């Protein structure tokens, strides 16, 4: 057993548990106006339509509601009226065309929430239906309706290829060749705190926003571009988020909110999406179709893999191309494969907008490559764990994309830890002891997730630490904390590096006016990149304080001084100068240390993946091995997850509590993706538009997830750590499929594994009654 | 919107006579519908402060024997905590324990579940199998102000009841099954809490010595507009032991007769298959 120190409370634990921590909207001044978007598509059942305008009588009626101030349309949007992180293709307000049912065509400003609601209910838009397309493969056919006629590729947002060796030839000659098709659904982030915030134009003309965002620094440029504002005249503050998971990476409500503020005559204005609007208009996980061919030796050594992936990006690009890039980069799994050909197409349709989501394009590929490995194990009568171990990437290997892995790789250790665990070693007896009408199954999966932005987009953070007048320390966190605990990790790192009690470290949350640009809270990079910068800044601060204490302590050798909690001490004599006193000797400028860190990238990148603008390839990966033990009810197809084990390679563990929470939260969200979250669309209409039909797993649906660390050391990481925020969500999809195959004899190829689909799997292997009697 | 809290029956009926007034119990159904705009109300009349609508009492026997009067505003949590409900009505207790979540059970009431008359109302199949009756109260002068109806007649369609304007549900009367009756309830939802039933089955069976079924009452939720009974399947079981063969035959009869719906939670085919399959679980009784 691994011994664990008693968990230390996170820096944000008490304020969140007692409810004193304030989300963005909670901080809106009471006198704020209310703004809200009018999205007519859903009510009219139109996902693609020409906007002829707002019905004038309805606008008059809305404006006649007491307290209603403005009804804004595309004509009121200064600037390009186009938002988007890389591709600027999404109107803030649609003036010509709506491309999915959640597109907004007007923005209402009112004095109160009821007035706003009333006005929104009165508005009517004149829409002329356009032919629509909802299937990404149909959308690529000739003559399909075009979503963005000006886009060169038609409905193809991005087509790309990653190649290594000669997969075609290798597959022709491989002794064993297997094929498989898979599909994965849309997933909703369903964070506790929906999108929103408040904003105001200050007397000196600054747009000052407090919003729920993962990317405060980049938001300024997205908003500035869309609304024709100087990005540097926009201030974005990002207090703690109530969840993000990728869904708040990029402007959600920000551009609408900025537009509202521009028309609010200097008054503060708030904009809050309720749950229904969050589901209707928010970004989602891409649905993907995957077709695989894998070739191997008779002993299970992988020889070649080729696959074709189709990502449905919905109406706008958001980060579709980049999401697909990461998915493709992981599509061959964490295995040594000499010949690889991965083709991807990311396609516009009239479905809701897909974008970033924890496990960024990768969670979709894991059920596919792991499905192929299990099929291979079954075909060759090999133990699935041994097959993975045999092919698992190790440090120094070239990965399927041709990158030499000079970073830490501990997948084998993850698998070995899993193999030695009683949940695995006792699986046969456990399985055989199934109660009546119940099948038991055990499945495992090996998964991974790249860290950082990848080559071509500098992954940098700039940390700032201030020695306050009171002799304490203030860390200027510049990467939003959406709940994952990076701010707490920063406080811990600073406390360690400055040798102070945790309570002596105060935190400021991201604010573009006070902190330095440090990128988005995403890509498993947050603690790694900012943490590295912070360690440098704190190291400089430590050296500075020691040198500034030399004079008052009359020490002529700096080596004789050390920073201790609350003071600098002269080691030979034991004399101290309290930090409080020392602070008084320093000018403000001297009390600040700033340092930056740039994530290393793959050297000699392979000559492939040229279609990607940025982000290919990655160098550092977190790995994990997951194990699920499940019961399947033969009468209903319901699945109960009895035990779940996640073994994670995240480098060194800085804070065991936060580490486990990432593994457990990731597994829980992955279990939702695999089992209960069944996002249903019909002709672009969301049938599961609220949380009574879109079913997140509850506390009764997720077992206690056991998290173990296969601790390694990523030399480039702060104290040896790697990001573990994403890898955990990648395991449940494939692990549950494997467990279902073990239980029913048939593998599901389509997520989620609903009771209905599971009952069909049972049916596929003959009548369940026969087996029961046997 | 006004929320009124009458303290006596007389006040209650007076306030209810206001145009647009709606009865409010726990609000767990009503507030959802009001928020969505599917329904409107000018004022809400809370039953909270009227003592005789709340609580559980024993009543003298008729039909199956002694019974319980379950006050309409008794919450699911209160029902679940009651020793007689747990001991003598395990099928109802099972249904209540899977209804919503702890906060919903703390607010939601039996009367609300009954008056909502949802095809998926979890207490309805057990109450129907048990032969429950409803006690309705209105402003009419004594005696005439109360009437009783079998639950099966009270619920007239999905979301529809025989409540007359100005009338409230005062209580649900449930006979307590005597010795020799076996009770079973199973709910199939898409997750383990806060799940609307996709199919549910309440089964009340009396067996004789040797395990032969003397009487069978089966009631399904979520497979039709209201709770669905299947006398043909009940007839298959009577006179036989609860073997897999007998239950399998009854299941086939169920599948042949049931006419469920497709919706976002499950297909009609799934419901049909599972409505039958659930009977097989009775083999363990
Ligand atoms: C999150 C959530 C989960 C839920 N899960 C379940 C579930 O698993 N199973 C289930 O069956 N239900 C579920 N429900 C529905 C609901 O909780 C139950 O139906 C509950 O019993 C309703 O009771 P209430 O007291 O809250 O009714 P209310 O909402 O107060 O009233 C419901 C309706 O009945 C009328 N009414 C109430 N009492 C009386 C009376 N005494 N006389 C006349 N009319 C009356 C009201 O006017 C209203 O039309 C859920 C609801 C929510 C919000």
What fold name goes in the CATH topology slot of the largest domain in chain B? Uridine Diphospho-n-acetylenolpyruvylglucosamine Reductase, domain 3
Oligomer: heterodimer
- Overall shape of chain A: globular
CATH H-tier superfamily of the largest domain in chain A: Aldehyde oxidase/xanthine dehydrogenase, molybdopterin binding domain
Radius of gyration of chain A: 27 Å
Give the count of helical stretches of chain B: 12
Overall number of strands of chain B: 14
Query: C-alpha Rg of chain B, in Å?
Result: 19 Å
The helix content of chain B is 25-40%
Mean pLDDT of chain A: 96
CATH architectural type of the largest domain in chain A: 2-Layer Sandwich
The main sheet of chain A comes to:
7 strands, mixed
Structural class of chain B: alpha+beta
Q: First CA to last CA of chain B: what distance? A: 51 Å
CATH class division of the largest domain in chain B: Alpha Beta
Number of helices of chain A: 22
Helical amount of chain A: 25-40%
Distance between the termini of chain A: 40 Å
pLDDT < 50 runs, ≥5 residues of chain B: none
Strand content of chain A: 15-25%
Q: What is the CATH third-level topology name of the largest domain in chain A?
A: Aldehyde Oxidoreductase, domain 4
Task: Characterise this structure.
- The complex is a heterodimer of chains A (774) and B (285).
- Chain A is an alpha+beta fold.
- Helices cover 28% and strands 24% of the residues of chain A.
- In chain A, β16, α10 and β17 form a beta-alpha-beta unit.
- In chain A, α7 packs across α8, α11 packs parallel to α20 and α19 packs across α20.
- With 285 residues, chain B is an alpha+beta fold.
- Chain B has three domains: 45 residues, Uridine Diphospho-n-acetylenolpyruvylglucosamine Reductase, domain 2; 124 residues, Uridine Diphospho-n-acetylenolpyruvylglucosamine Reductase, domain 3; 104 residues, Enolase-like, domain 1, CATH 3.30.390.
- Chain B contains twelve helices and 14 strands.
- In chain B, α10 packs antiparallel against α11 and α11 packs antiparallel against α12.
- The radius of gyration of chain B is 19 Å and the shape is globular.
- At the A-B interface, α21 and α22 of A face α12 of B.
- The site of flavin-adenine dinucleotide has 29 residues of chain B, from β2, α2, α6, α7 and β10.
